[in-house]
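Structure (tokenized):
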């Protein structure tokens, strides 16, 4: 989960892997492992975050993998994960700091993925991401991504959170709320650490999400030079760079 630079994820990066690594890994295996196994040229992971999806891509393929991650806090965890992968997999991994459009990737992959990214960037950045994906893909290559929300809820909603997860004497959890706010959906993560039933500390971080109507998204995909194709999973969209 990452798409922005600066101080974003400075709070969440501490808790992210402890609370979300396993569900994210299982989802990445469902969504991307099969396609990664069929890749013959290369793979790009846009918004690689702490590297959970990146690791699944490396484990499922034998091709070079490019991990693009602009947020320094998340990239720090990604680099630590990469250090533990083993020399053979590290040899296939290139990490790109900065935004997708700044990575300079040109026809390096037959598969690109963007997990929990497209809805997390403002519309202009979303369009830039789609254009960067089109450039990064070789002709016939496919981008797989989960779409942004279509609209906003009428009121704030509590979602299923993460945890609790025990580590030593402490229990970690995250409560998640989504709040509509002037056309933007704000995802609020409240982190709690407890010891012997008492609060040790708490922290909060908010992330905006930008809804997009399906017809708007289709137009942006087309304008980026991609075409919608059948996706391998019902939670995903797939866009291919035409071979012609």
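Design, position by position:
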């Amino acid at each position: 989960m990452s798409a922005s630079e600066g101080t974003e994820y400075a709070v969440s990066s501490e808790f992210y892997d402890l609370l979300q690594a396993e569900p994210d890994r299982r989802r990445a295996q469902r969504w991307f492992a099969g396609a990664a196994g069929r890749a013959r040229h290369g793979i790009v992971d846009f918004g690689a975050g702490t590297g959970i999806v990146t690791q699944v891509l490396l484990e499922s393929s034998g091709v070079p993998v490019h991990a693009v991650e602009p947020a320094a806090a998340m990239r720090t965890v990604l680099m630590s994960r990469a250090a533990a992968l083993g020399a053979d997999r590290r040899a296939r991994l290139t990490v790109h700091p900065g935004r997708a459009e700044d990575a300079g990737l040109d026809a390096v992959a037959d598969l690109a993925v963007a997990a929990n990214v497209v809805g997390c960037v403002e519309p202009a950045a979303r369009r830039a991401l789609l254009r960067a994906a089109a450039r990064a893909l070789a002709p016939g290559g496919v981008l797989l991504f989960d779409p942004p929300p279509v609209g906003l809820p009428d009121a704030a909603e509590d979602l299923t959170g993460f945890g609790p997860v025990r580590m030593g004497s402490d229990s970690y959890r995250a409560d998640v709320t989504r709040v509509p706010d002037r056309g933007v959906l704000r995802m609020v993560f409240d982190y709690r650490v407890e010891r012997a039933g008492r609060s040790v500390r708490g922290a909060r971080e908010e992330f905006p999400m930008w809804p997009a109507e399906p017809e708007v998204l289709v137009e942006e995909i087309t304008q980026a030079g991609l075409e919608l194709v059948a996706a391998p999973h019902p939670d995903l969209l797939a866009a291919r760079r035409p071979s012609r």
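Reviewer-requested clarification: Residues 12-148+213-240 form a domain with the Rossmann fold fold (CATH 3.40.50.150). Confidence is low (pLDDT under 50) at residues 1-6.
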